[in-house]
Specification:
The protein is α/β, with parallel strands linked by helices. The protein has one domain: Ribonuclease Z/Hydroxyacylglutathione hydrolase-like (Metallo-beta-lactamase, Chain A). Helices cover about 20% and strands about 25% of the residues. It is built from ten helices and 18 strands. A seven-stranded mixed β-sheet has the order 8-7-6-5-4-1-18. Strands 9-10-13-14-15-16-17 form a seven-stranded mixed β-sheet, with helices on one face. Strands 2-3 form a two-stranded antiparallel sheet. The longest helix is centred in the middle third of the chain and has 15 residues. It starts with a strand and ends with a strand. The structure holds zinc ion (ZN). The site of zinc ion has 4 residues, from loops.
Length: about 300
């Protein structure tokens, strides 16, 4: 499993022009995770993206990839730096007749020529799941995601009934359930981890990170946006994880992210497992205090 930090910055961090006139972007905190397995797009790799913010098409390009190169998308919670790329992903893949070989075959008519996607949808024919990217997320998050994206997606010219599954092979995830990803000779069990991110009165925004555990004993934790060690049972996940990709706020405390001042107070054994990211400016830490301060484009193999 290869993890690439597509971006490491907080939602509204903006890049800057350098003295040489070149623009240095600050992409949102989304990850590319690649498995050594057959994908929907390529036979040699399954590409999974953990969160897809408004700038995802640009941050992917930093790795030479386009939206159409991704096999599966995961959404942790419905903030724009995690779901803002949704409309671009959905529209640019559904109308791409060459998205993968299954789609090309599906579009071939009796004369061996290709019909358009729109013609097929107009005839109420559903795109086969193998010809659509997968969309993963906790069921409660996918409901919110559709609410946020539906105004731009629920109408397709000439098509009567449109839902998330018109565009995606949808995988609503349940709590306390494992989902399997093959990766060469490794098997990864992936489950959702409830995090406390935003409390609005008595309502909690649905927000779920991911935990990846391998057949060889790896335990990699992505709480995503989260209050520090909340809910309290999160402590157990932090203790058992080998590596934690840790939300780390560096500006004034917003009350919805883990702040560097709070993270620095914790058990040093946990700090040594944390890669800090989702900052507006790089956090100031001591040498060896953390596993690292994650940089844009950094990759790790497990
Ligand atoms: Zn958020």
């Amino acid at each position: 499993m290869k993890v690439t930090a597509l971006g490491v910055y907080s939602a509204f961090a903006t890049g800057e022009y350098q003295e040489n006139g070149l623009y240095k972007p600050k992409w949102q905190s989304n990850f590319l995770i690649e498995f050594n397995a057959k994908g929907k797009v390529r036979d040699s790799v399954y590409r999974f993206v953990l969160d897809f913010g408004t700038d995802i098409r640009h941050s992917l390009m930093g790795c030479g990839l386009k939206l159409a190169d991704i096999d599966g998308w995961y959404c942790s919670h419905p903030h724009a730096d995690h779901i803002g790329g949704m409309e671009g992903i959905a529209l640019s893949t559904i109308f791409n007749p060459f998205w993968n070989s299954v789609k090309v075959e599906w579009l071939k008519n009796e004369d061996g020529e290709m019909d358009t996607v729109n013609d097929r949808l107009f005839d109420s024919r559903h795109i086969p799941n193998e010809a659509k990217p997968s969309l993963w997320g906790h069921k409660s998050v996918l409901d919110e995601l559709w609410m946020a994206a539906a105004p731009g997606l629920r109408t397709i010219q000439g098509v009567q009934s449109v839902s998330l599954s018109t565009y995606f092979d949808v995988h609503p995830m349940k709590s306390n359930e494992n989902y399997i990803f093959q990766d060469g000779d490794k098997t990864w069990e992936v489950d959702t981890v409830l995090s406390t991110h935003v409390l609005a009165g008595t309502a909690l925004m649905p927000s779920y990170g991911l935990r990846f555990r391998s057949s060889q004993g790896h335990n990699i934790l992505f709480p995503t946006d989260t209050l520090w060690m909340m809910p309290p049972n999160m402590v157990g996940f932090y203790k058992r994880a080998q590596v934690i990709y840790q939300d780390c706020e560096t500006g004034p405390k917003s009350g919805v992210h883990s702040h560097i001042d709070d993270i620095r107070m914790v058990d040093p054994a946990i700090k040594k497992k944390c890669y800090l990211y989702h900052y507006s400016t790089e956090p100031k830490v001591e040498e060896g205090e953390f596993l690292g301060v994650l940089k844009q484009g950094e990759t790790h193999e497990y």
